[in-house]
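Question (not urgent): is this output format expected?
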Amino acid sequence: MSDYNELISSKAESAAPGGGGPLGFKSGMRIKKGAGDYALDALVYFVMIFVLIVMTYPFLFVIATSISDASAVTRGEVTIIPKGFSTASYRAILSHKLLGSSYLNTILYSVTGTLSVLIVTSLTAYPLSLRKLRSSGAIVKLFVFTMFFSGGMIPTFLIVKAVGIMNTRLAIVLPAIISAWNVLVMRAFFRSIPESLHESAYLDGANDFIVLLRIVLPLSKAVLATIGLFAFVGFWNDFFMALLYLSDISKYPLQMILRMILLASEMTRSDAESARELINMSTQGVKSAIIVVAIFPIMCLYPFVQKYFVKGIMIGSVKG
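Got this back:
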């Protein structure tokens, strides 16, 4: 009995403020670093700084090239510091008569496409995440099958043509509205939500749609932001769908117009009747300006979804 009392008193002393911890260390006591610890810290800092430079240099180079003098760009004198100053490339791009309408088209495609992707994906993934759906395993296997075996570009083109949405804005959004990968990722996240929340809602008289709308989706901001960001960037950067399905230039997205400007900037003087404002510019400068114009809206959007994106970066590792 006395040994038991001594054990209890020793644990109380270790738990008390300023007392020793389970390894004999006092609370608040700093562990002295050795030479190996400092060497490891220096190595980590060096690697992180190196990665930062590698990732930042191309971006700074593109910006510097886009605002540098054309002759300096042609001679290869530009690094991350601009040589001279010229906004001719930006003026040529921003003065294009179809740039404004293409920006509006791209915003329309990206916003409606992203909302459609989130709505359809969540409505598909939620039933498959319910364990009471007995056939969910077989349906999931069918989704996985489509990830490895798909019809390809030509069958998709024939389907779009047969449906009758060629040369319409639906042709840009509808074929990309759902992805098997997104469904599986969202299903795994939904399955990580405790079933007790579902059961308590059922006891209060809620149906599955109310549970999805009031409980599951508010708890799934991370996966919604992650998939939404990927979908938005995909729609924003896509030009191949427009190249296949659109013939009306007024419906072209931003990437198609930028592609037209880039092709015009690469014409020779004898071929450049439609691009006279570009023939005295550096092709590399025009390319860099196009890159900046294309990615600027995404750069403005990313800070608002970054906190959710960081939370959802490991969504694929959730078991379900």
